[in-house]
Amino acid sequence: EPEVTQTPSHQVTQMGQEVILRCVPISNHLYFYWYRQILGQKVEFLVSFYNNEISEKSEIFDDQFSVERPDGSNFTLKIRSTKLEDSAMYFCASSEAGGANNQPQHFGDGTRLSIL
Amino acid sequence: EDQVTQSPEALRLQEGESSSLNCSYTVSGLRGLFWYRQDPGKGPEFLFTLYSAGEEKEKERLKATLTKKESFLHITAPKPEDSATYLCAVQAWQGGGADGLTFGKGTHLIIQP
User: Fold this and answer.
1) Is residue A25 less than 8 Å (CB to CB) from chain B?
2) pLDDT 10s digits, B46-85
3) Predicted confidence (pLDDT) per residue in B82-110, tens digit
4) What are the CA-CA distances from residue A113 to residues A9, A93, B40 (Å)?
5) CB distance from A99 to chain B under 8 Å?
6) Do the chains contact at B96 and A55, CB–CB below 8 Å?
7) Chain A residues with CB inside 8 Å of B44's CB?
8) Chain B residue whose CA is closest to A109
9) What is the C-alpha separation between B72 and B56, in angstroms, rounded?
10) Contact assignment for B43 to A108 by CB distance below 8 Å
11) Which of B42, B98, B104 sits opposite A56 (nearest CB)?
């Protein structure tokens, strides 16, 4: 069964450094998402991406964050000048379609980001 | 602001003991309500989508139902492998095509042999 793949599984970074989290969505999916889950808290939406541009973003997704689809298979989340509070599990998700069809979002197993 | 509240936070059942998990929601306009299962250290695994009040979906020992204010995930004769955190999420009509999900905190379910 096709799945969303995320790398690395665990990233440790010094505060103030930049990190790039990588995701390979399911191949025929067109809509891509990033979420985060701080330890012990709920999963929170960050951003959605369609047709090479941001479709929707939450208040969490400020100028510190950016997303990119650099080629036909990868989808990345860049976090600049990392802070201690950025420590969380980051999940990538993809869906076959959005809009009225409302296909479910399928999630990867996440990247655990630890800021020291 | 969209909100999702799940109860109970944790539930411990004996194998074979049926029960229900609750998801109460408020959303400006419901596009869909989703149930996911999350195992420790893993991402949410899709279970069901419900679109309108009165709709029901079933998969093995799980059945999801939807009203205008809440959804229930009924688990019948559970087995230890059903132990997981069950997440409820709503998607609202935002006008765009790729709308984010608003999740609840989940119900941590433990099935004892």
Assistant:
1) no
2) 999 999 999 999 999 999 999 999 999 999 999 999 999 9
3) 999 999 999 987 765 568 899 999 999 99
4) 9, 17, 16
5) yes
6) yes
7) 43, 91, 107
8) B43
9) 10
10) yes
11) B98
Q: Which two tokens stand for residue A18?
A: 């930049």
Structure tokens at A98: 């959005």
CA distance A61 to B94: 17
Residues A22, A7 contacting (CB under 8 angstroms):
yes
Is A48 an interface residue toward B (CB < 8 Å)? yes
- pLDDT per residue as tens, chain A (116 positions): 779 999 999 999 999 999 999 999 999 898 999 999 999 999 999 999 998 999 889 999 999 999 999 887 899 999 999 999 999 999 999 998 765 556 899 999 999 999 99
Q: Could you tell me if A102 lies within 8 Å of chain B, comparing CB atoms?
A: yes
Would you say B35 and B48 are in contact if contact means Cβ atoms under 8 Å apart? yes
**By the 8 A CB rule, do B107 and B8 touch?**
yes
The shortest CB-CB distance from A98 to any of B49, B89, B98 is to B98
Please name the residue that has the structure tokens 């505060």.
Answer: A15
B28-31, long-range: CB < 8 A, 24+ apart: B28/B2, B28/B92, B28/B93, B29/B92, B29/B93, B30/B90, B30/B91, B30/B92, B30/B93, B31/A102, B31/B91, B31/B92, B31/B93, B31/B99
Tokens of B59: 């998969």
